[in-house]
Amino acid sequence: MTTGLTILIVIIAGLILTGLYFLQRRQVKFSKQVFLALGLGIVFGLILQLSFGATSKIITNAIDWLNIVGSGYVALLQMLITPLIFVSLVGAFIKLKLSTNIRRIGTTVLVTLLATTAIAAVLGVLSVFLFHLQGADFVKATASKANLAILKEHQTQVTGLSIPQQIVSFLPSNIFADFAGTRATSTIAVVIFSAFVGVAFLGIRKDYPKEAAVFAKGFEAIHQIVSRLVHLVLQLTPYGIFALMTKATATDSIELIANLGVFIIAAYVALLGVLLLHTLILVAHHINPVVYYRKAWPALIFAFTSRTSAGTLPLNVEIQTKSLGVDSPTANFAASFGLTIGQNGCAGVYPAMIATIIAPTVGINVFSIQYILSIIAVVTLASFGVAGVGGGSIFSTLIVLGTLNLPIGVLGVLIAIDPIVDMARTLANVNDSILAGVITAKRGGTLDEAVFDDVTEVVESTL
Hints:
Elements: H1 2-25, H2 30-52, H3 57-95, H4 101-130, H5 145-155, H6 163-169, H7 175-179, H8 186-207, H9 209-234, H10 237-251, H11 254-259, H12 261-284, H13 289-306, H14 309-323, H15 328-340, H16 344-358, H17 369-382, H18 392-403, H19 409-414, H20 418-444, H21 449-453
């Protein structure tokens, strides 16, 4: 009976995936495909849980098969991170007209990303106070063995490292190992290496222009290959989202989600506060936020549904350059740095919330200004090196908790509802990187106002 029901569930899932394929063949808008897949995954998962129970063997077996699609999609996205960062950053240096632009662009992008992350941490702390979550009294469950195993796996990568040691770990001692993603900090190591390659190219372009031209031409070919790879993988997004959402809603207990609902609401309030902060920054720079959000919307929606900043990178750059009028080097710098530095949601709001929730359980007065400032400082420093895929928030949060000497038990419980929160976190991350590009271009005088003001120029990714 169990085997028969498992086969039936897999067949139904296969039929839904086939339906999504036919929609793709009929060239339905990509955003509609993604939203439909999201909705179908939620409904299908809830039906499975209500019918058989979140921990039933039938669900476990069926999800194992569906994981071929969901986990396979995530694995392919992770495969793209390193080549995407490398070609985007080096390509940005190649497109720079003057090497003196590097300091201006790099400084403004980094200041924007880190400053907004620090304020995002403040918003996370305030949200915990607003909903009275400090002390973790709202937690009515214990962490599952699977979630504790996830934490243990991530914790082994940061145990015993002080903040200065973590900063040193960002440096690439073996770039081939980092290209293979063997370390938790491999992503930012690739960013650093790519920046060195870019600076070296600028020196070669000045002294040996012919050789530099050959390199630039060859690199453009590599960039086109990587772009096509991204195109191929992102075509799988509707199928991956359906599988991932089905798994999340079928296996995450409805009762647990209800018990942790107050945390979900608090997180979304804090993340909405981050978007309000972004809006105020736009207004302060005399940039129309209505036009901005209308044009950034496709990337934000993709980020929300796919839960991957890295997967959004090509659409991020395309929207900045074609819709918002940001010059190509700035757009590539902002989008690439935004993958690993100063993610407002995953490395700002979330770690600050968790630290504020847990601190009172060990007798710390979280209302102390000194302690709040220490949370903000640690969160901002720990925001370096967060990978732009699922799990990055856990890594940054463990660094913060370890630095502040806080226990991690509550985090093991909250992982159960992480996909729900992660959608909004990823949207905030991507919006901040787009914001950094627009602000940097505006301050540097390279923002094409005509392109920005042209409301007909809106990128809609159909893949």
